[in-house]
């Protein structure tokens, strides 16, 4: 538990910089090629030196890993491939001793088909109490109960031997929980308390908008002859009103811990909802604490679009008293160095679809990092983004692990390209990912020697050094973190320029030409070298005013 004398303020989460760890790909302590809990423990000093406030760990539970751990077989234990509960307890204690908070993933929409309750439901038969824990239904007109699509491809219903179908909004191996059943509600209450009592500081809630379903099971509209995947208002399985009752219940549980020496426990929602008015409903004072801002993640490298996203996000979240959060990449999306190296119309396309200029992408990634870290609220860094890692777009087909690859009939490569293990040191794979020369579960590129943490730590101009400098300034400067911004008037097209009190200005050049900076303002940090008071294209500067 954190020493109360060094514990951050009770609203630490409103301005925290959180580092996402994807356990399989972060660090391997055993040499088996898979990242693990003790690998994370060994790298805690690196994260403390980087300057983040908290760590979010993607699912570490027992799982067949058919969806990278988001298919949970036991919510109260650690995957044996990753370690033990004792290892997790040690990680939490060691992180707290370094002043780092720990958030873990909660996966409440679905579990694994290896979960004991789902196995019991399959065995118990139609009409049983066990089946009512999930969404089992009979056929409609000889087919599935609805036309709902699954996120990873195909339909969202799977038929079993006795003729009934079970709902899986994601992969066939991930049956959806029935949140209308009180036993499911009580089970997740107990899961929250289990981990809160072990010292975790909060949860990132996977697909926080999906637990409640319309019991009438209406079909979704067709788009080009296929069931729509749009999260339209009134969608029967996304953003249903019932999710807010669940979140309010969870908030009351977190609030039970507010007066402990460790301080409050918190939630951050993953809800791919747009516009921000819809997302704001999830972070009202009696619900979740914060939510990922996916409008910002999907925004093009375009000054007008970025300003609109910033304004719309902050206006709507501030209206309900919630902080904004900013994110550039995560384990489900194309790394932003690659995204920013593409034409903005094609930035979110999959691997190998469009050409990418990685040098341009790196320059823009540096500028975007300073923009993100200067905005009001909190920020998230996906592991390896501080190194400037690109998406790995040429993974061999025989190593692809994401269920999207199979469910799409080998037409969509999926998310493995952003999950390639981190390079730590050395000149060739496995780059210090684990002891010895054993190769990690996904192959690393042969040209990553200049992107290792070791190589970048010794280079004052590296991507890693930029992040360290920015996080140090952010922590020390009274204008940064939670607060407000004011846009500067009369800025040229393609320029983002705002001030934050006291005494801070951020200027981003997304135009086609260099621009002259305001005179008599001291440079705190710039994403690229400056000369003669001129801000180059695709460059961000922090100024003291």
Automatic annotation (TrEMBL):
GO MF: alpha-amylase activity
Superkingdom to which the source organism belongs: Bacteria
SUPFAM superfamilies: (Trans)glycosidases
GO biological process, alphabetically ordered: oligosaccharide catabolic process
Pfam families, A to Z: Alpha-amylase (PF00128)
InterPro entries: GH (IPR017853), GH13_cat_dom (IPR006047), O16G_dom_2 (IPR045857)
Annotated ranges, domain Glycosyl hydrolase family 13 catalytic: 20-419
Family: Belongs to the glycosyl hydrolase 13 family.
Name by which UniProt lists this protein: Alpha-glucosidase
UniProt organism field: Kribbella kalugense
